[in-house]
Each structure stands twice: as structure tokens, then as C-alpha cells.
Amino acid sequence: MPDKLAFKPVTRSTAKDFEALFAGPGGPKPCWCMTWRATPEEIKDNQGPARRQQILGRIEDGVPVGLLGYADGEPVAWVSIAPRDSFRNLGGPDQQAGEAIWSLTCMYVRRQFRGEGLGRQLIAAAIAHARKRKADILEAYPVAPSSPSYRFMGFVPAFEGLGFVEVGKAGTRRHVMRLTLS
Q: What is the rounded CA–CA span in Å between residue 181 and residue 84?
């Protein structure tokens, strides 16, 4: 198991790696990380193949969608990190004029790499990426470790351990947590 992953943004040049990770065994191919991104028009066709085309279209257009984590040159993990306004309403506090908020909405680690603390590495990489992109705030929507759903959004203790503070709730399970970056 890797001690540390190498991270790259998902771009046209890494899109094939993104596809390989998502389409691989146990990958999140039903959603293609479009659950929170899909527009009302895109939701009308929300099956896996359509979602794949929707996310690949964003990548082709240069829209930020997230980071890939690599172990020995192979993509093994994903974190969705992008400007908050590129997602549907996630339930966080209103954005103030001039405030640059980025959202971390999803994480995925290939099964054989789970349980090794890679989730914290994904969050830390997302923090660094958001800072590099001049975000003022990074917002996340994790759940309690005992939650029966939304586990792909991460767990509250991991975010707390990296300095995030809870600012509200989004529904009954998701906690809205923020880290001030500037």
C-alpha cells in the first residue's frame, strides 16, 4: 500500500485515467460524480452512460472537476473539488459577494487501497488545490461514521482533524463544514 499518493487535476490529459478509475471494478460508474453537478436538463437522463458523457464534456471544456490520486503511476483515488457554483445547491451558507468558495463533494478509493488513511490524503490534496486556485473557503458535506448513506462524502472526524468547522446541516445526515483558506 502506498504511504503517499501523487495528485493530478483531472484535465484532458488525465481524462483517460479518470475513466479507467471510474469504470474499473467497484468504481463509481453509476454516478460518474454527476449527482451534485447535473443541471435540471441533465437530470432527465441520469443513467451511467449519460452521466459519463456529461462529466467528460466538462473535462473537455476545461471545467475543474477534481483530483486523481496515483500510486506507482496508477490512478487509485479520486476527490471531487471544484468551485461551489459548479454544483447544484449543496446546503451551505449563502455565498457573499466576492467570496470564492470551493466544494469537496465526493471521494473514492479503490477497494484494495481502503483503510490506509488515504481519505485524509485526499482531503489534504483538495485543500492544497483549492488554495492554489485562490479559494477563500473550502466547504465539505461529510457524515458521521455511523451514517448509512452519503459515506462517499467523507466522515466528520477526518475533516475536523484537518481544521474544518461545522457551520450547519444539509438534510438529516450531511454536516456542512468549512475551512477558511485566506
A: 15
- Is the alpha carbon torsion for 14, 67, 103, 29 positive or negative? positive
Cα distance between residue 49 and residue 159, in whole Å: 32
Specify the amino acid at residue 70. Answer: Y
How far apart are the C-alpha atoms of 176 and 142, rounded to whole Å?
A: 7
User: Which residues is 80 bridged to in the sheet?
Assistant: 66, 106
Nearest to 90 by CA among 30, 176, 173: 176
Query: Is the pTM for the entire model greater than 0.85?
Result: yes
SS3 104: strand
Cα 136 from Cα 3, distance rounded (Å):
29
Q: For 18-69, how does the pLDDT look when each residue is reduced to its tens digit (9 = 90+)?
A: 999 999 999 999 999 999 999 999 998 888 899 999 999 999 999 999 999 9
Question: Could you give the residue ranges of the DSSP H alpha helices within the chain?
Answer: 15-23, 40-43, 48-60, 118-132, 156-161
Nearest alpha carbon to residue 54 among 33, 68, 69? 33
Q: For residues 9 and 36, what is the distance between their CA atoms, to the nearest angstrom? A: 19
Domains of the chain listed by start with CATH number: 6-180 (3.40.630.30)
Q: How far apart (Å, rounded) are the C-alpha atoms in residues 175 and 182?
A: 22
